[in-house]
Amino acid sequence: MILAVVSGKGGVGKSTLSFELAAELGAVVVDADLGMANLPYAPGPDLHDVLAGRADPLEAVRSGGPVSILPCGRTLAGARAADVRLLADALHAVEAAYGDVVVDCPAGMRADAGVPLTIADACVVVASPKGYALADAVRTRELARELGCGLAAVAVNRVVDEVPLDAFADVLGAPATEIPADSRLAEAVERFDPVVASSPESLPSSRIRELADAVRVSGR
């Protein structure tokens, strides 16, 4: 399965949840935000190189750590040289070699945000617990639907106070999971140490497992 993780706005913790979901699902996480990559980077070929035809997708995957990752470059020149028409072949090659793939997509409704949705089998919409978030999530689901990508689950992220979780599930027509605000999640990507592995008994881990279970059920 190729799973796209999307959001209507940036800054909602989409990259962190992509990282944690990949760890829980045993998937490769691909940083597909060509202009504003946010997942860990290490020297070597990256997605910019792959989409510019300078590297093979499998050559760019870093495996052997707690999460296998295909990172994205950080340069504007790299982003400009990337041909997004090559993304489908790259993602399918990684899927064929490694199994499930989680794609950390660009935020918002830009054209580059839609490209991974045309390739993915399903998506997870990440929303903030703020008042405007439900409308943003609906717009994101509609974009995914127009591009033929089904909604597997919704993650309401960084929750502090009570949120209308049932409203998210009812309006969006998919299971909704509440992910608590927790400093360990915020630090996990930087440490390259997912919470589901470092603190498996914690509430954030429990909720990410719940989210991953919803993804698994959607793929049956």
Low-confidence stretches: none
What is the terminal-to-terminal distance? 10 Å
**Total count of helical runs of at least 4 residues:** 10
Helix content: 40-55%
Class based on secondary structure composition and strand pairing: alpha/beta
* Rg (C-alpha, Å): 16 Å
The beta-strand count equals: 7
- The string of secondary-structure elements, in order, is EHEHEHHEHEHEHEHHH
Question: Approximately how much beta-strand content do the residues carry?
Answer: 15-25%
Strand order of the biggest β-sheet: 3-2-4-1-5-6-7
Which term fits the overall shape?
A: globular
Give the biggest beta sheet. Answer: 7 strands, parallel
Mean pLDDT: 92
Overview of the molecule:
With 220 residues, this protein is an alpha/beta fold. It has helices at residues 14-25, 47-51, 76-81, 87-98, 111-119, 133-146, 165-172, 183-191, 195-198, 203-218; strands spanning 2-6, 28-31, 68-70, 101-104, 122-127, 150-159, 176-180. Strands 3-2-4-1-5-6-7 form a seven-stranded parallel sheet, with helices on both faces. Helix 1 (14-25) packs across helix 8 (183-191) and helix 6 (133-146) runs parallel beside helix 7 (165-172).
